[in-house]
Amino acid sequence: MNSNNNNDNKNTTTEKPLIILTAGGTGGHVYPAEALAQELKARGYRLALVTDKRGKNNYHGALGEMPNFSVLSGALVGKDILFKLQSACKLALGILQSMYIIWKEKPACVIGFGGYASFPCAFAAALMGKELIIHEQNSVMSRTNRFLSKYASMIAESFSQTKYAPSNIKTVLTGMPVRENILKLHENDYRRLPQDKFQLLILGGSQGAKIFSSVLPNAIAHLDKEKQQKLKIYQQCRADDIEDLNAAYKGCELDITISPFFADMAQIYAGTHLIISRAGASSVSEIEAAGIPAILVPLPTAADDHQTGNAIDLAKENGCILVKQEHFTAMDMSKLISELMDDGERRTALSENAKKAAKTDAAIRFADAIEELIKQPKEQAGSNV
User: Which of 35, 106, 298, 373 could form a disulfide with 307 if both were Cys (CB 3.0 to 4.6 A apart)?
Assistant: First the structure.
């Protein structure tokens, strides 16, 4: 068990207790944890982070500044029987490590954000009778959260009527907490963007979408030269695909930046005219908050097709354009991109409708619910709100 205490975050002038956050390492788990941490820290709470080594390396900002602990963890889905046995052993040890951390640190509650790296600490909290709060990012509850929710004192939901959420556990519709620097973009007027350039942002999710790397260069190549020259593209992809992707765009006359990760997302969002993205919960919520016209292409293999569920309500409100992957072809995308580049009114409408769908106070709602829960006796938790 490793501890990295960059800033012990202890405030001797406050009596507010410690809260432990636990999360996996991908953006869908990291970003809401980061947003909530900012809000709780502003309210004077002491915070600590528990995750695995893989996840810990992804944390920056408020999460990177707080005391953090890494414990063993492992996924039990897929792979062969030997892999599953090794993972089970890691999980058991990770639960014991987490129980020691909880015993030593004495938190008021543990908040789990999903991902298998969050399981050991969340389950340890349940075993030790600590208040366990689960945040579900997606419209369909993940398998990890489905199991843990049976032991939770409260479930915070990003979407109303989350599929597989238990009916006998207290639930609060908080929305998806979004990082503060992205929330600030909500006040920007989309029409202020310059018209001489057209910034296109392409996001493939935590793993990078390989189909984006194969389809979109062909789609851009079919645009007329005038539109190509107007484009400024930021495309996120897997590190292994960068060389091939650069080669695929070689015949296009445009300004392009390709990277597996963009650290300055708020700045990029602020200048984006159109985004093409997977429909992970954090991506959808940030698109809504920033009011970016979006083409959402749900990952069809996502568990329980939750990405389609994440996007469908926004599409019904004309806050995005939903394209099933089976219809995601070079010619269709070239036509759609060209039409949107020419139709500023439609893009503005998409932007305004996306903003209407945003829950910009999600972190505040979540923090309020946490404070209410930890101030009441544990036996009172359990009814829906």
Answer: 298
Q: Is residue 45 part of a domain?
A: yes
Q: Name beta bridge partners: 256.
A: 233
Residues 343 and 368 both lie in one domain: no
Per the structure, how many domains does the chain have?
2
C-beta atoms surrounding 339 within 10 Å: 10
Asked, for residue 277, whether it belongs to a domain, the answer is yes
Domain extent for 322: 182-357
- Whole-structure pTM over 0.85, yes or no? yes
Does 317 lie in the same domain as 186?
Answer: yes
Outline where 20-118 has alpha helix (H). Answer: 27-42, 53-56, 61-65, 81-105
Torsion of CA 76, 78, 80, 83, to 10 degrees: -30
Q: What is the mean pLDDT of residues 202-213?
A: 80
Residue 299 clears pLDDT 70, i.e. is over it: yes
Q: Which two tokens stand for residue 296?
A: 């959402």
269 and 218 in a common domain:
yes
Q: Quick one: 363 exposed, middle or buried, by C-beta within 10 A (0-12, 13-18, 19+)?
A: buried
* Coil vs helix vs strand at 297: coil
* Claim to verify: residue 32 and residue 49 sit in the same structural domain: yes
Find where tokens 């009114």 sit. Answer: 345
Average pLDDT, the chain: 90
206 phi/psi in degrees, rounded to 5: -60, -30
DSSP SS3 for 306: helix
Residues 266 and 150 in one domain: no
Element (H, E) at 70: strand 68-70
The CATH number that applies at residue 43 is: 3.40.50.2000
Q: Which residues pair with 202 in a beta bridge?
A: 235, 276
62/132 Cα distance (integer angstroms)? 21
Residue 167 is classified by DSSP as T
Residue 135's φ and ψ, nearest 5 degrees, are -110, 125
